[in-house]
Here is the input.
Amino acid sequence: MDQIRVRGGQALKGTIRISGAKNAALPLMTVGLLTDQPVVLRNVPALADIESMTNLLRQHGVRITAIEGEAGTWTLDGSDIVSTLAPYDLVRKMRASVLVLGPLLTRFGEATVSMPGGCAIGNRPVDLHLKGLEALGAQIEIESGYVHARAPKGGLTGGRVTFPMISVGATENLLTAAALASGETELVNAAREPEIVDLANLLISMGAEIEGAGSDTIRIQGKPTLGAADHRVLPDRIETGTYAMAVGAAGGEVLLEGAEAGLLDAAFDVLRRAGMTVTQEATGIRVSRPCDRLVGVDAMTEPYPGFPTDLQAQLMAMLTVADGASMITETIFENRFMHVPELARMGANITVHHSSALVRGVAGLTGAPVMATDLRASVSLVLAALAAKGETTVNRVYHLDRGYAGLVEKLTACGADIARLQGQRAAAEE
Ligand code: UD1
Here is the structure.
């Protein structure tokens, strides 16, 4: 199993090109199931999660072909769907697989999708997805670990769905399902994430009528069919924030090329309060740490436009070496502090009490062997390693491959001493 080795202490200097957003690309790809016309997606990041979604869609019968000479451009052709079953073996690899449920059910009148199960960061049920689809007329049964969903004769019909809590995935499943349902659907207390807006924009370009994406109420007029489209995936705001926090942890100045500041105002606000400089330029966002040490700040994760839970671990890593204390509160997932014991092994001083972590800044971290537990936790260990004295090895780097395209290359280009060691067995797994 591969490891990542970091020798810390180098400030970052240079340019990092921001990839297309994983969390936008995954739901956008499921749109390949909604139409028999070709859907072209550009700026799709090269990630393990994208490969998982490609494998899942291919077994449904979607033909997915790369456009030669254009890295990250794929054509999806759903004119010959052969199966409406999403099997356990493929779904268990990635929770976002459940996003095929809405498209399959609305176009073919039935879908059988494995329940995604729990994951390291929490229980993560799909009840909101299922209740929403029931409000559009679906009949749902859960049997032997599978969701069996069936639409009435004539297909799903528009309805009013009021989400009791905000869910990105449930909003996406309902958006795609409503696009082919008859009549109007209203989604109340919908997620407002930029990835939802990206999905709505693709559906609109295929002929769907959608109003209000990006607000908490979305109205969709369903259409009998949807047409072809050519769509560019928006830049990854979580990757952007991660590298900005890497600069906060290690020091230096980096241009995040292709990044859009408007997509993560809340995170940049926290970084500025901690002492960083963030400026939008013509080609991207320039971030720098003008001081020797940042100062401690408080932050709380919230649904968009609040501070994203997917940047919580990285922020914590950055603040372990800030001057003073920081309080970080996680409100989205119940078990998202698994990076804390690993950061503590590097010398961080963090106390967790329920959903809050009190980080008392230390003068410096020291390198250590550490273990990645989930995607964002694992990158937070890389950030801490960049700031630490000495050598850190991060085990279980397959977590990083799920969400960070070219991480080692991007950081190396900015002067970091980081390498991927192929085929090393993680000590704790021997
Ligand atoms: C998406 C993102 C993930 C991010 C999360 C929150 C993708 C592929 N993944 O995940 O990176 O961390 O948003 O911003 O876009 N919940 C329920 N019942 C449901 C659905 C959700 O109780 O049916 C709960 C979850 O357990 C969680 C909260 O709602 O506590 C938010 O989850 P949700 O927004 O659905 O996250 P995902 O769409 O899975």
